[in-house]
UniProtKB/TrEMBL annotation:
Record-level GO BP terms: lipid metabolic process
Pfam families: p450 (PF00067)
Binding, heme: C252
Similarity-based family: Belongs to the cytochrome P450 family.
Protein name: Cytochrome P450
Swiss-Prot/TrEMBL cofactor(s): heme
Organism: Gossypium davidsonii (Davidson's cotton)
Top-level division of the source organism's lineage: Eukaryota
Length: 316
């Protein structure tokens, strides 16, 4: 199967699952599921495509590992290799099929967690930067100081870019609402009582726009708020104030990887191209009524249309 078949099945699955979440009458999708019709039939078919794709990855990785035992090559070592090594040496499974299903679920979890979250974050980032030319200039100044063969450590030196990405995630967190189910009765530190079986939701989107939390300029895009101290060095926020990556023991495992990915893409794109938003980017007026559409992720309505203009200079 080609990657596009998998990508379509993956997108369809996410869309159908999130439509269940927002369904006004949940009984409707449950009936469709039991009769195997409509969107629920499609969901079942899409899940099969995704599972087959993940099993194919495991099969080809296992083949490569066999080859690597004779001709070791460190470049073939990736996250899946690590999980495969752990499942062989440290985790016991009743049979081979349970082990394959475990690895399949790991692959799908990482694709689900890391694929659209990062691209959604970058969409809002470029939209915001387009509407704030002084930020665009400051980021460009910073990224053009890097050598074309920049390293992981070089990316860490991009303080302004890190601040701008964090500011963008504050205003447009890709996971805008999150939910937890209470497993037993509890009383929160502020005295709120929650009973077993209740859902406790929080909205990172709303929290990022609360004056009480971020001050009177909370609706403005100001990367500088992450650089207070006057030394130009990025200052992280308390995770409970900034829950774009969730917080506590189940915080996003890919947070650092996400910043590396986002910075790499921004550096690579901005050095080569001027990115011009067709709608002009985030003007003050549009910031009051942002063009979002709600699914599991906070996507931009209609996608983000841009023109790319090749830069007429070699930054180095
Ligand atoms: C800007 C990009 C990203 C954002 C905003 C983000 C956000 C989040 C959030 C809010 C959660 C908590 C979900 C929940 O428990 O309900 C989460 C969990 C997770 N994320 Fe990310 N994520 C991003 C990128 C990534 C990447 C690139 C990876 C890895 C490739 C990743 C891997 C994970 C994993 C494995 C979990 C589950 C952690 C656990 O339950 O213990 N994420 N992420």
């Amino acid at each position: 199967m080609d990657n596009s078949g998998f990508a379509k099945a993956f997108n369809d699955t996410v869309d159908i699952c999130s439509s269940r979440f927002f369904a006004p009458i949940p009984a409707v999708w449950r009936i469709k599921r039991s009769l195997n019709i409509g969107s629920e039939k499609k969901l079942k078919e899409s899940i099969k495509i995704i599972n087959d794709f993940a099993f194919e990855i495991i099969k080809s990785k296992a083949k490569q590992e066999q080859h690597d035992r004779i001709y070791p090559d460190w470049r073939n070592q990736d996250l899946l290799s690590r999980f495969m090594a752990k499942t062989s040496s440290e985790i016991e499974f009743d049979d081979e099929s349970k082990k394959r299903k475990f690895l399949r679920d790991i692959i799908i979890s990482f694709i689900l967690a890391g694929k659209d979250s990062t691209s959604t974050a970058l969409t809002w980032f470029f939209w915001l930067v387009n509407g704030h030319p002084h930020c665009d200039r400051l980021i460009l100044n910073e990224v053009t100081t890097l050598d074309p063969t920049f390293t992981y450590d070089d990316l860490k030196s991009l303080n302004y870019l890190h601040a701008a990405l964090s500011e963008s995630l504050r205003l447009f967190p890709p996971v805008p609402i999150n939910s937890r189910l209470t497993v037993s009765d509890d009383v929160w530190p502020d005295g709120t009582h929650v009973s077993k079986g209740w859902f406790a939701d929080y909205s990172a989107y709303a929290m990022g726009r609360m004056e009480k939390v971020w001050g009177p300029d909370c609706r403005e895009f100001k990367p500088e708020r992450w650089l207070h101290g006057g030394d130009g060095v990025f200052k992280p926020s308390d995770q409970f104030k900034f829950p774009a990556f969730h917080c506590g023991p189940r915080t996003c495992l890919g947070k650092d990887m996400a910043f590396v990915q986002m910075k790499t893409i921004v550096v690579a794109l901005m050095r080569e191209f001027e990115i011009i938003a067709v709608d002009g980017g985030a003007t003050a007026e549009k910031m009051m009524d942002p063009p979002y559409t709600l699914s599991l992720l906070l996507k931009m309505r209609g996608g983000f249309l841009v023109r790319l203009k090749k830069r007429g200079f070699n930054p180095n």
